[in-house]
Amino acid sequence: PAPPALLPYVPRVPPAALPGKLTATTFALERPCCVFDRHANASDAVWLVVAFANASDAFRNPPSRADVPLYERLPTARSYMTLETAAAAYACSAPSPAVLRVGGDTACGDQGGWDPCNGPLPSPGPYRVKFLVMGCQGPKAETRWSDPILLRRAGSPSTIDPAPARRGSDVVVITSILASLGTVLAAAVLGAVGTEAWRSLCHRDSGTGTFARRSYRTHHIPPALPQPLPPGCRCSPPGLGCFAPRPPGPCPAE
Questions:
Q1: Which parts pass through the membrane (predicted)?
Q2: Is the Cβ–Cβ distance between 52 and 125 less than 8 Å?
Q3: From CA 31, how far away is CA 12, in angstroms rounded?
Q4: What CATH class does 5-151 carry?
Q5: What string of H, E and C letters represents the secondary structure of 189-254?
Q6: Helices (H) and strands (E) in the chain, counts
Q7: Where are the domains of the chain?
Q8: For 36-141, where are the alpha helices, taking DSSP H only?
Q9: Residues 156-187 pLDDT 10s
Q10: What predicted TM-score, i.e. pTM, was given to this entire model?
Q11: 135 with 4: CB under 8 angstroms?
């Protein structure tokens, strides 16, 4: 058969920030729209070939669907094919998601290895991918290989440094102590201000109260008692004294 047509399209991870664009077992790819319209019929299928970057040059396109390398052979064959999709799903007029998820099928073990699977990738890679159009007579067209795609590495628990946690605890303790000292200082300042204000109020109240309670006691002067007239004085109104001799005998009533 004739070799498949080489299309200028290069698969790539979306440049935009996406949740889960690269994980420890999966990665996202831009969906190839309007790429296969001139090289595929409605009955053709488009496959995604996934290979370790250092094994992509050794990959050979399978002559038929029965020869498609499966996901379970990745550790030994270093490549596999997945995401079998009708070519019409990638047509320009077909509504479709913007990205494809490679490695997103966690139920691959339940399929018995007979159907192509999109299982989680077993290592960070790096990997390279390409799209392959296959018809009844075998491969018809293919894209170029992507650049190497390196997944995230999961950290081993033994490599986690517990020191940041201890430093975090120390920071919390120091912060608590500083907060306590600040509270005590604020209480002392407020107490001093309150005491001074209280003294000022007491001093003001003490002066006013003393003035209000101050009393002046006058000497009690008893009324003057009438004094007896000396002998020989003329009767006169009481308190006027004697100013002339009087004749003997009692004073006439006034």
A1: 171-194
A2: yes
A3: 9
A4: mainly beta
A5: HHHHHHHHHHHHHHHHHHHHHHHHHCCCCCCCCCCCCCCCCCCCECCCCCCCCCCCECCCCCCCCC
A6: 2, 7
A7: 5-151
A8: 74-77
A9: 555 555 554 444 556 555 666 666 666 766 66
A10: 0.61
A11: no
